[in-house]
Structures are given as structure tokens and as C-alpha cells.
Amino acid sequence: MAVNRLHKLASRGSVPVFPVLGKQGDGVLRHLALSPQIELVDSPRYASVLLVAGEIPADRFEPLRRVHDQLPYPFTTLWFRSEPWPHLERVARIDDLDDLPGALVTVHRELMEGRRDSAHRLLPDKPPNPWEGEGDFGQGGEGMMGGVPYGRPMAMNMADDIRDGLTLDSLTFRLGPFFFALPPGMAAEITLQGDLVQTWKTQLAPYPQPLDKVFFDARERPVPIAEVELARARHHLHRLFHALHLAGLENVSLRTLRLAHGLSTSSTLDGLRRALSRSGFFRLTAGGGALGPEQARMIGGPAARAAGMDDDLRSEDAGYRRLGFSPVYQAEGDTHARWRQLLDEIDQSLHLARLAERDKIHTERAGSVETPRGPWSERRPADASALFDELLPGLEWGDALATVASLDVAALADQPVGARPSGESRAVGGGTGSDV
Amino acid sequence: MFSELFLPVLMVIFMLVVGGYAVAVLDRLVASALGTPQAGGIWLAPMARGAWLLTQHANATEAPDWRAWRLAPALYLALAASGLAVVPWSASLVATDLITSVVLWGSVEALATVVIFLHGWSANSLLALIGGYRYVALGLSYILISMFVLIGVALPAESLQFTQVVASQEGLWNVIRQPLGLPLFLIVGLGMTFWGPLNLADSTDLAGGTASEISGPPRLVWDMARAAMLVAFSGVAATAFLGGWLGPWLPGPLWMSLKMLAVLSVLLLLGRLLPRLAPERCVTLMWVVLLPLSFIDLVWAGAVALWE
Amino acid sequence: MELFALLVILIVVLGAGLLVQWLPMRHQPRPSWSQRVPFLGGGTPDSHAWSRYHVRYYSMTLLLIAFEMEMMFMYPWAVVFVETGMKAMMEMGMFLAILSVGIVYAWREGVFKWQ
Amino acid sequence: MESMNHGLGVDIAFLLLAALAVVTGWRVFRTDSMVRASFFLLVSFIAVGVIMILLAAEYLGVAMFFMMAVEMTVMALFMVMFMMNPAGLNPMNMVHQERIAIGAGVAGFLVLGAMALLAAFPDQPVPAGLEPVRSLGNEMLGDSMLIFESAGLVLLTTMIGVVVLSSHRGRYGAAAEGSMPPGLEPGSDPAGKPEEDEEGEHHHHHHHH
Amino acid sequence: MTLTTLLLLAAALIGIGIYGALSQQSFVMLMMGLELILNGVMLAAVAFWAFSGAGAPEGQLLTIIVMAVMAIEMAMGFALVVAVFRGKQADMTESLTGLKH
């Protein structure tokens, strides 16, 4: 009797969900962050529901199986707008964003009250390397550092340390496509010595990120500037949301998300900017990762302007000139400069949107547009995740992840937000496309 | 025999349970006050979370140091209990009134660093290891500041006993007599319970740091131990700086719990408002800025103690 | 006698901490090897995490051991400070000055940076 | 301090703590994992600290706790940093000249044990009303102030020595670069330079010093 | 808990420390042995203070000085190990013949 009272009590709490992001999955993440009964967690060990949000490309199935098996019993999975694997039984698939939170709560409640039994492990129950009974004392290792004790080799020192000349063991590992601090879908092979990054090799580029429809229209015909600037500000606010969660500022990140959700020409940034600067976000948190001139030119957009380059396609557009637009830029080009640049650009966009809405001004120059990711004249901004391979070695772990969060490296998707990828048969259900 | 032995044990266990629950509820109150809506009843949510953790299976890594891994959360809870055992609730109502209780609290802080490193090390997983090592840099730095501040408090009391320290604050509380003391001690408290800006051990950029590989009952004990250490710290801070059980009208223990709740809410608020510091900047801040400040606080306390 | 009570408290709470972990886990099956892989966002490590970890603040720790000794001397000083009066203040001032010279030197040598 | 009047509880506690100290002291050299070795030593120190508290040296006992906690943490960091196979995954036997060591250990124990049993030491127990911390404080500030200040000076020299020896990057750049031993006569090429460095100023990381 | 039993315990700790210092190959483990020896010495000092030193304050000061010796010896020992390790990645006592090069 006591056990099921415990289970009944456990089912009433908030639902711990570990989100795994597929294509266009981060929109789902932002939607769930606003619903109070869902608790998005950073590690699968803390979750009882694995949410697969968005379509996962085939080359990331193996890491997904690994993460699926890392949830402790009792757990289950829920697939949002992506095809569940055939051999999982009784798996829920949701397509409409609005009833996703409700579905998560019911799945969790069923799981806790035993009405739904836990999912099973997919991968075989075998150690990474066979070791029982082998080696000197049956633990799979020989001598001091040899063999595969307990299934894994011992760390050996590969190279001199790049900073203080003590050659100690370096740890090489692959940080997977589903690590929340990396852009969705990006995977990298990292070698650390201590907590200092020695080498960083990006293996899987992040998913191409969808942009608002208004940027696609702006290339064909004049569009109201207010709409373009609001979409730009919303994009920057979404990136700020992820970085603030990484820096440990939960409340301010949710405030940023609410601001982005209900963004209009009347909303302002002052309260948020004061909260950030007063809490020392621009001075004491992890920083570093300064861009060189040619790196800045390669990535373009706000990151380049943070490094002192003041090229902005908007300054060639007559409509913007009439509004008195002049590009704002920083000098240092490191992580803190990029955050200051982002906040200045949001302020500027809101100011331009207010003016443009009052005077109904449209963009004049079709054919090229300044997207929040970078200038888009004839070719869409390509993926720049190779930039990390030279930028991150030499940084401490916290600084490296802060630099990754501050650089928008994903390429632009060919479809705007909300439009279903061509392969999908049914068009999206109710929910308006723009709020994803 | 009873009052000598079982009363202290019951007192400490009562403080652990009620204090831990109070921390969980207060944390959710502060979160909802700052704008993060909390699902379900704030009073019920900690119970539900505890029940969920008890039903969840415990995780294991490939080759952990099993004994140390299971022992670390329990050791951290025991340290919190010994901290609470030293906190005096009234002139006579104190669990264990050692002559050198201030030094014992200093050693609880030093041993907390050992236990948190052990928790990170024994999981044999990368993110936990980085969390453990990063925390030791902070853990070894805040011990000095805490000791200078506590010595400053022990000066007017002319003894290393918390009951004497409270007695010495009869006329004027230390928070007014030694203005630099409480802010520095709050920073030490954040460091000791790796909460908010000084959370280098279980931070979000390490997916939970030392606790990234535990789930189920071990994680419940780790969270309870963290909450208990917060309560123990706020008890010591209230005793050392806010005049412990002293106060007009209300009985001693009531004053003590009010002051502990005040210190707790300040800590939880700081935890929610400030971003996490970079470890390197944190160590430099502690050694180059806060240590000289604690020197000044000590000299100030000495001067005041002399001229009183 | 207080010491005995403190030891009993430690043992009781330590036992409670271990019991709360052990009781629910008694009838839980040992997790499978696929669950025990450390969480790296779906990636895999090449080796054990246990290695000769390159601590970056080793000179700070050595400095700390020397500085920690000061604590040992300061606690008894605090107890007799008010009795001995200004003499104690002068002596401890000299002691603190000597040791803060060491810290300023270490700071100039960049010991508090990640080596 | 009634703990001094040899109550039965105190004797039992003493025996338990003595056993704990010796066993953990022994396990320090028998265990494979370096972190376990240093924390076994910490437990041994804590046991000795509690015995000190039983001996009415309250301050020294508790001071042992925090002092040894810090030292054993640092000991654990350095042992893991410099020892091969730090976590003892491959059981190893890092022992040499085993027989001599056991002999010396046992001999040391026997000699000191005999001294403890046979020698007659004056029997002047601690006076009941003594406040250990206060007497230590007065002693430190009064008669043996010289010891107290010279200890501070020795600590300063240790701090400077430690920083010189261990930090790689000082104010004037990395220690290894360009640091050549001075010549015998002023201005001559550095004395005692090993031959293989002759083949040009190619700065090799490993065997440069 | 008489003086002799305390001294026997101190002798046992010193014996184990001597065994540890002589038997271990690694420099760091050798220092563990030295620490254990100093642990025994401290216990003996406090025992003498409590039983035959009539609570003389010099006894406690001697214990604090022994603790200072332990701290200084440990700090210098590890600094030497770092300096030598940076030169040639050696940690075994046999190979540490010369400190110069």
C-alpha cells in the first residue's frame, strides 16, 4: 500500500523531460520552457521522459540510441513531429505543439502510476570492450597502464600541454549531437588536458537553422521594415535565452523568452539590460574566444560587427537610410563583446521597428537582406562550425562553452520557420507557424 | 543520560528534516517571486520530487569507486549535521556545546571540500571529474576568508564557543559592529554549498557536474545534504553575526529560526540573481579582493574589541 | 560528553544517509552496460575519466598549505586578544604583514591564473 | 574536563580510535587508488585528532581536522597528478626493498615501544581547571613570541620557494625559455652546458634546463 | 588511556610511517610515509603534554610547530616534484638522481 502511495505522490510533481533536438527542434524547447508543469533537465539521468523534438537525421541515430538507454528506469519516450522507431512499443507521437505539454504530463503520470510500463534498453548489455577474467588479475588490464581495465583503456599522455609544459594525461572524447550547450545537432571530438581544451574537431555540423518567413520575402519584394526588425530581435532574444541558461541565470533567461514571445514595437529591453549588467554578466562570467579579422569576415553578421567590422547590408538600403540607420559595432570581438553587440542590435531593431511602423516604411532593395545570422546576398550564409577548431583550443571548459553559445555558426535552412520539410505529408496542424 | 545524548540527536535530526524541507519550499517561493511559475502546490512539490527520486532507479557508471560514490552524499549530510549540532538555539538549548565550536565549523568547511571532490572523483566520468576539480580550486580559497571572518567574530567573545560569541553580542550585534563580516561570510556560504554564482561543482555547463551521473535515491540524499548544509550555514551565520537567540519579546529559538530564514532567503535570492563566475576569475577574486577585505574586517574587529 | 554526543550524531546521520540510498536500491537490478556509459550528449569517451588530471591551480594549492598555518596561530591569538590588548594587535599585525608579502609576490607571479 | 578521569567510555573510545588510526595508516600503503590512500591518511589523522580531544587538548584536536583536511586534499590532487595508474584500476605493486622497509618499521616500533614501557616519565597530569586555548594564546604572545614570529618568517620563505619552484610562467615569461646558467667568467658562454645543446639554439622543450 | 598506551600507539604509527617511507617507489607516496611519522610524533607530544608535562603551554606550541613542519615539508616536497616533473616526466625515486639537469 505504501509503495503505490509513493508512486501517486511522485506522479503529481513537475514532469522531468530530457529534450533531444532534431531539425527545427529548438522552437519546441522554447515553447516547453514557458509551460510551468514541464521541467527541462540537462542530463538524461534526471529525466523520466525522453522527448525527441523534430526529425533526427540518420547519421545521429546511434547517439540517440545511446542517450535513450541512459535514462534510468522507469522511463519512456515521446516523439514530436518525428517518426518513432518501429521496435518501440506503445510510443506516443505528437504533431501539434499546443497539446505537447499535456501529452507529456499524461505520459509521465501513466508511467508513475504503473499504467504504462517503462521502455527497454535498445543497445546490447555488453561492456565497451570485453574484460571479465582477462589481464593480470582478471580486471582486463596488464601491467601498470595497459589493457582495458573494466572495459576501457587507461588515458595516456598524447602531447605536451600547450600552456605550462607539464605533459600529463589528455582525455579524448566525442561531445555528442544532443549536448544542450552545443548548437542543436553539432558534435565534436575534443581532447582536454585538465579542463583546458587542447584540440577541438567539429564532426557533425549543427542543423541548418530556419529563419522567419519575412527574410525570405524580403529577398523578393519590399516588406515592412518593422516586421523584419522584430523578427531579427526575436532571433537574437532566442539565442540569449540559451546562453543565460548556460550561465546559470534561470529567471532572467525565462524573462528573455517571455519578452521574445510577446515581442511588439512597444516592448523595450531596459529592465533586462540593467539586470544583466548589474549581475556582472558582462564582466565576471566565462569569456574569451576573441575572433581574428579573417575569422570575423568568414562568419559575418553580428559576430563580425562585435569584432569591429561595421559592414551591414541594411546601410545600403534606402528605406533604412531614411530611418537614419547606422551600424552599431564593438571592438574586442570576444564573448562579452558579442553579448553587448547582441543587446545593442536588439535595442536598435526595436527602435527602428517603432519608427518604421509609424511611418510605414518598406525595404527598397530586393535580392539581398541582412539576416540575424549574416548578410544573405546571392548565397545563403554557410555553416561556420569549422571556426571552432582554431578558436577553442587553449580555452578552459567554461570559456569554451560560453564561446560556443555566443557564436551563431549554423547555416540557414532553405525553408522558413514552421514550413514542414518537403518529405512530410501532412501540413502543420492548428498553431500559427510564427510562434514556433 | 537522556538529555545528554538523545536530545542532541533528536534536535539535529529534527533540524535536518524541517530545515531541508524549508529550503526546498523557500527556493520555490523565491523562484516564483522572481517570475519562474511553479507547477502544483509549492508546499507539495518537494514531497513529490522526493517520492519521484525514491521510485527512480539509481544509476551506475562503468567502473566507479562504489564505496566512495555511495559514501560521499551521506558524508556531506553528516557534515551538515555536525554543523547544525554546533548551532546554539538558546543559552542552554544547544546540541553539542564544544569549547572550540568555531574551529569545528572551520573544519566542517574544509572537510566539505574533501567530500565534494570525492563525489566528483568516484563517479569516474569526465563531466563529474571536471566539476570536482573545479570546485576544489574554489573550496580551498574560501576557507581562508571564512576563518578570518570567524576569528573576527571570536575576538570580542574572547572564546571560540558559539554560545560565548552570542553572549558577546548582548549589546550590539556583530553585523553592525563588524560591517564587512556578514557579506564576506555570505560569499563563503555560497561557496560552501556551491549555490548560485559559486556553483562550480554541479553547474549547468557540466550537465550537473559532480551530480551528472547520479539518479534516484543517491541524488535525493545529495540534494537533501545540500539543503541541510544551507540550513547549517545559515544557522552559523545567524549565530555569528545576527546575535543568535538574542532579541526582545520573542523566545530565543523563535528568534533563531527567524534569523536563519532571513539568511536563507538572502542566499537563495543571491543564487537566483547572479550568474556563475568563471573559475579562474573566482580564484583571483577570492585571493586578491576578498582576502584583503577580510584582513581589514579582522583589524576593524580588533580595534573595536579593544576600545569597547 | 559533548564529544560523545557529536560522534553519535555523526554516526546516526551517516547511517541514515546510507540507508536512504541502500533500502530502495535493494531490489533494483544492476543497470545495463549501455546505461552506464557516461553522458556526453550521445558521444563516447576514449578512455577512463580517471587519469593524471592536469590540475591548473597547483601552485595556488601549495601556497595555501603554507598560508593555512597562519590559521593555526590565529585562533589562540583571538582568544587572548582582549586580555593582552595592543601588544597582541602589533604582533599579529607583523605576522599578517609577513604572510601578505608572500601573497602579493604570488599574485605578481600569476599564481592565481590557470597555469 | 571530566574526560580525563579515565572513565570506562573514554578507554573504549580510545581503543577504537587507536585501532582505526593504525588500520587506516596501514591501508594507506596497501590500497591501489591514490585518492583512497590520501583519504585513508585523513581518517587516520582525524582519529588522532579525536584522541587529542580526549586528552583535553581541545583546540589541537579540532585544528588537526581542518589542517589535515586541506593538506590531504592537496595531497590527493598531487598524487593523482604524478602517479601512474592513479585510480588503481590495474592493481599494482609499487614497492621496492620490501624486506628492509618492514625490518626498519618493526625495529622502530620495538625501540620506541620499549622506551614507552620501560622509561619512567614524570606523572604530572594536566591541572583540572586549565583552559588549553587560553594558555596557548598567552604563551604564544608572551614568552615564546619569538617562535611565533620566526614561524611566520619560515612560512614566508616557504611561500616564495614554492612559487619559484612550481609556477612555470613568472612575470618575466616562461621559466624554461632562455634561462641559461651563467658562465664561469662574466660574459663567457654558460658553464656546464651539456654537449648535445651545441647543435644550435633549437629550443627543445624536454631536455632544455 | 595511560601514557604508555598512547606512546605505544605513537610508536606503531611511526613504525608504519617508516615502513611506508622506505618501501614506496614513488616520491609522493614517500611523503605520505613522512606525514604518518609526523602524525605519530604529534600524538606523542600531546600525550606528554597531557600526562607528564602538567599542561605546560610549550607542549601545545611544540605540537603546532610540528604541524608547521609537516605543512612546510609537504609544500616544498610537492613544489620539487612539480619542478622535476616538468624537466623529465619522472616520478620514481630511482630516476631522480640529479636535480640540476
Automatic annotation (TrEMBL), chain E:
It is found in: Cell membrane; Membrane. Its main location: membrane. GO terms for molecular function: NADH dehydrogenase (quinone) (non-electrogenic) activity; quinone binding. GO terms for biological process: ATP synthesis coupled electron transport. It comes from Vreelandella sulfidaeris. The gene is nuoK. This is NADH-quinone oxidoreductase subunit K. NDH-1 is composed of 14 different subunits. Subunits NuoA, H, J, K, L, M, N constitute the membrane sector of the complex. Belongs to the complex I subunit 4L family. It is an enzyme of class 7 (translocase). Gene3D superfamilies: 1.10.287.3510.
